[in-house]
Amino acid sequence: MEFTTKETAKYLGYEPITINMSRISGRLSGMEAPAHIKRGYAVFYDKDVLDEWKKQYTEKTTTKG
Fold first, then answer.
1. Number of domains in the chain
2. 7 in a domain, yes or no?
3. CA distances from 24 to 3, 34, 35, 58, 61 (A)
């Protein structure tokens, strides 16, 4: 599944301009920006790539019994 820039922004919780700027700077929230796909002037993001990118922010907890 592929998302447009606008859909990607909504999915990740950012404004579309932030996603656009991340393509230029290569950074998003201090991390490497998710990879994008360009087809002519159109830009898309693969949902699996976005999910992997989001995993950087998943809190990991462990409990010791």
1. 1
2. yes
3. 18, 12, 12, 25, 34
